[in-house]
Design goal:
Layout (H helix, E strand, L loop, with lengths): L7 E4 L11 E4 L9 E10 L2 H7 L16 E8 L12 E4 L2 E3 L21 E2 L18 E5 L3 E3 L6 H20 L7 E5 L3 H12 L4 E6 L5 H7 L3 E4 L6 H4 L4 E6 L8 H6 L1 E9 L13 H4 L4 E4 L5 H14 L5 E5 L3 H9 L6 E5 L3
Parallel strand pairs: 10-11, 10-13, 11-12, 13-14, 14-15, 16-17
Antiparallel strand pairs: 1-2, 3-4, 3-8, 3-17, 4-5, 5-9, 6-7
Helix pairs in contact: 2-3, 2-8
Length: 357
């Protein structure tokens, strides 16, 4: 295919974009390098990060901004120095990261931890070292350095693969790192786009018990269908923390609001348990007593996305365990409506935009 195509997408021009005011217009991608891949976008998952960025919730956004970092499409141009064996015509995907330093003296980049490189470049709302901006995939085409472009296994449908590239890996990586599997009891806080992946992958990894934790029982039936063994509704049982004290080895918290009973969550952990934060509130987390950690030897940490190696591992694992996310496909042309619906918490459990062009 010739490269006379136009890069265009749904652009946020100011914080009101999150209210359904994105504009469809063209943009200039990064200058072409022989390590790059151009992708004709067929699918893009809708992530909570998109909303935070559109409204400048995590800090000032570099408007105009095209969001979308759960990308699946077809490689239409591949540089002569591209990695990962990608060829024109391959079905490929991109997650939230598009670059990093990749220097031989970088501890992170030389140990499969590129997602923690201090020179990380995000797939949208970022800048490459040459100063050019990154643009996401609520649109027609994307240009991305090949180190962060992955072949999608034939056994995974494009609409299923897209949300795995952020939502899926954001849960798979900390679950795997923290030993979720036989002998472990795992709690997932927040049953949304991220949390539902937590239930699916914790179960697939073989955890002895998977507990869904939400404010109400509205999603209880769904959580059990996903594989949860128990359910805690924090707004419907005033003594929930006492009833379930010292019952979990690992908690992954997907909540992106600071309005959370953090100290009560910590009470659910057994001795030497771990609490891992993956949701990214726009405010500071609530304070808690140091004894919540000290008294049981509890550790508290965080996790962000996953490295290229972890993403490839997750995709292979997904095939081997036949993990299938709960998604709803929506037309790319209706992106403004979809963003508004996402903000209203209507997704069950991940929206995926389909480019019908």
């Amino acid at each position: 295919m010739s490269d006379d195509y136009t890069f265009q997408g749904w652009m946020g021009l100011d914080p009101s974009a999150v209210e359904g005011n994105m504009k469809f217009q063209s943009f200039d991608p990064k200058p072409w390098e022989e390590t790059d891949v151009d992708i004709k976008i067929t699918h893009c998952g809708v992530c909570g990060s998109d909303l935070h960025t559109l409204r400048s919730g995590w800090g000032p956004t570099l408007y105009p901004c095209c969001v979308g970092h759960e990308t699946v499409g077809t490689a239409v141009k591949v540089g002569s120095k591209a990695e990962n064996g990608i060829r024109v015509g391959d079905r490929v995907g991109v997650g939230p990261q598009s670059s990093c330093c990749l220097k031989p003296d970088c501890d992170e980049c030389t140990s499969d931890r590129e997602n923690f490189c201090p020179e990380i470049v995000h797939t949208y709302n970022g800048k490459y070292p040459d100063g050019s901006k990154t643009y996401g995939s609520y649109g027609d085409y994307a240009r991305v350095p090949s180190h962060f472009v992955f072949k999608i296994p034939d056994a995974i449908a494009s609409e299923d693969a897209a949300p795995m590239l952020c939502g899926g890996i954001t849960l798979y990586a900390p679950l795997k790192k923290n030993g979720a599997g036989p002998g472990k009891r795992v709690g997932i806080v927040g049953i949304g786009g991220l949390g539902h992946f937590g239930i699916l992958y914790a179960k697939a990894l073989g955890a002895d018990k998977v507990v869904a934790i939400s404010r109400t029982t509205a999603k209880k039936a769904d959580a059990f269908k996903m594989g949860a063994d128990d359910f805690i509704a924090t707004n419907e049982d005033k003594d929930w923390s006492q009833h379930h004290t010292r019952s979990l080895d690992l908690i992954i918290n997907t909540v992106s609001s600071a309005d959370m009973p953090l100290e009560s969550y910590l009470n659910l952990l057994r001795s030497n348990g771990a609490f891992i934060q993956v949701g990214a509130p726009e405010e500071y987390l609530p304070s808690f007593s140091g004894f919540s950690l000290i008294a049981k030897g509890v550790t508290m940490g965080g996790s962000a996305m996953g490295s290229p190696a972890e993403i490839k591992e997750m995709l292979d694992f997904t095939v081997s365990k036949n993990v299938k996310p709960w998604i709803e496909t929506r037309a790319m042309k209706d992106a403004n409506t979809v963003v508004v619906d996402m903000a209203a918490n209507k997704a069950r459990y991940r929206y995926v935009l389909v480019n019908e062009k």
